[in-house]
Write a structure and sequence with these properties.
- The chain is 35% helix and 14% strand.
- By secondary structure, it is α/β, with parallel strands linked by helices.
- Helix 1 runs antiparallel to helix 13 (371-379) and helix 7 (230-251) runs antiparallel to helix 8.
- It is globular and about 65 Å long.
Length: 464
């Protein structure tokens, strides 16, 4: 996201505030990530009947990560919001958003709305979740979308507000608004498969057979942009191996879960896939060089890579082999007749507990699901998780978003939030070691032992 995935990626710049939507920059030194002040419970609003009404003419600050979708769409959405509500917006966008807003938050000045997904290397959103410093926005779901008669909750597609990605504390409340969803899977050159007469594998046994065929022609079976892209891959794999029950137990760090046959199957598949991975991948699997790994697929040096639909825009100007055409498939089933899964990755927007204008911020979050905002976002390639939006798509996006119509099942959710464990993060424990698996500097058992060593700590520190 990975995105955006990918992506989700430059000297940090502080965007100077304008009365309307817009941005300019002053130089600022990158700041170290630091946790906001802790509170004993998730930040909550006063009851709806007592909450202060949004004030026309007020000004809110919106901070949004700039990804492959660009920043212009945010400017347009903010302008549309101001035109509809009379609430002004000071917009901050940057590719290194954490470095831009970090210093002011350390000083106690928070944006009113932050659009920044989980799963990024600096884990700012996870820090706010762990510190229980995010506002409960459950009431936004029952708000009327500004400028429309529809209710927010009725427009959002099913399941998106019922997952740990939006309800991280398991208390039945929503704290993060789902944004810009993207089916994730294995992306490949469909033109090469047509040229070679190869079928896209539907099981892992077929995948290994194809890997041997490709190797004989000097092509690696697999690559990955960075190890961060293994989050969506690993989640889909867990669903494929053990279904929702295994996924829920694993992502909540159940005692003994990594000693089960299902867990071992996941480990074995990734360890074997490491043997089929293009050898230069680990050296390029970082935020500066990840596009070189993506280029391996465009140059027919590797067949598959895990990614999301943003890859098309991200590599739009990149050279490619003759006859190249994007293809996307779900992760193969474990056995014939089994289910293949595609993880639905989506970004999040949220209101920090220290936001000054929370009533107006909730109005802005509600507006993000308006027809006007969705059209602006879609024009830039960012697809909101609203009902029936796929019917409006064309080209590659129509193919990508039809993956669930073509037999794949959707995987959704992620590891449960836990209070900080010094020196430990999910990415460092589960995914970062894959570089060492590929390079041969770590064995599969060493990887497994590292996971087992911290699983109990994570479970013991689950955010309640």
């Amino acid at each position: 996201m990975k995105k955006m995935l990918s992506i989700l990626l430059a000297a940090a710049m502080v965007m100077s505030m304008l009365a309307g939507c817009g941005s300019s920059a002053d130089d600022a030194a990158p700041a170290e990530e630091s946790a906001p002040a802790e509170s004993e419970a998730p930040a909550e609003e006063t009851p709806a009947e007592e909450a202060e009404a949004p004030a026309e003419g007020a000004t809110i600050t919106v901070a949004a990560i700039e990804t492959a979708y660009g920043s212009e769409m945010w400017q347009k959405v903010c302008e549309a919001f101001t035109a509809e509500t009379g609430i002004n917006v000071e917009l901050i966008t940057d590719k290194n958003l954490e470095d831009v807003i970090g210093p002011s938050m350390q000083a106690g000045e928070f944006p009113d709305v932050i659009h920044l997904a989980t799963g990024r290397e600096k884990a700012l959103t996870e820090t706010f979740i762990k510190d229980q410093n995010i506002v409960d926005i459950t009431d936004v779901l029952s708000m009327t979308v500004p400028g429309e008669s529809a209710v927010v909750g009725d427009k959002i597609a099913g399941g998106f507000t019922e997952t740990s990605l939006t309800n991280p504390y398991g208390d039945g409340k929503t704290y993060l608004a789902p944004m810009f969803y993207s089916p994730c899977g294995l992306f490949y050159n469909a033109g090469l498969f047509e040229e070679k007469g190869w079928d896209v594998p539907t099981t892992w046994d077929e995948m290994w057979e194809l890997g041997d065929k490709a190797k004989a022609e000097g092509i690696s079976l697999f690559t990955y942009p960075t190890t961060g892209y293994f989050d969506s891959f690993f989640y889909a794999l867990m669903y494929s191996v053990g279904g929702a029950d295994f996924f829920d137990k694993a992502t909540n760090y159940e005692e003994g879960i990594w000693e089960t046959p299902e867990a071992q199957k996941c480990f074995d598949i990734i360890a074997k896939l490491a043997e089929y991975t293009e050898p230069t991948t680990p050296a390029q699997a970082n935020d500066q060089d990840f596009t070189k790994n993506q280029q391996l697929v465009l140059d027919n040096k590797a067949l598959f890579m895990p990614n999301g639909t943003w890859i098309v825009g991200e590599m739009a100007e990149a050279p490619r082999a003759d006859g190249f055409a994007w293809g996307m498939t779900a992760l193969p089933a474990v056995e014939a007749g089994g289910d293949g899964y595609s993880y639905t990755w989506f970004e999040q927007a949220w209101i920090p507990g220290g936001a000054e204008h929370q009533a107006e911020a909730k109005q802005f979050v509600a507006f993000l699901y308006s027809d006007a905002a969705c059209a602006i976002f879609a024009e830039a390639g960012a697809i909101q998780p609203v009902l029936n939006i796929a019917e409006t798509l064309e080209g590659d996006n129509q193919m990508f978003y039809a993956i669930y119509d073509n037999g794949a099942k959707a995987a959704m959710g992620n590891f449960a939030a836990y209070d900080g464990v010094v020196g430990v993060s999910n990415r460092d424990v589960w995914f970062e070691p894959i570089n060492s698996l590929v390079s041969g500097n770590m064995t599969e058992q060493e990887w497994i032992d590292g996971i087992k060593a911290v699983n109990d700590q994570m479970r013991d520190n689950l955010v309640q």
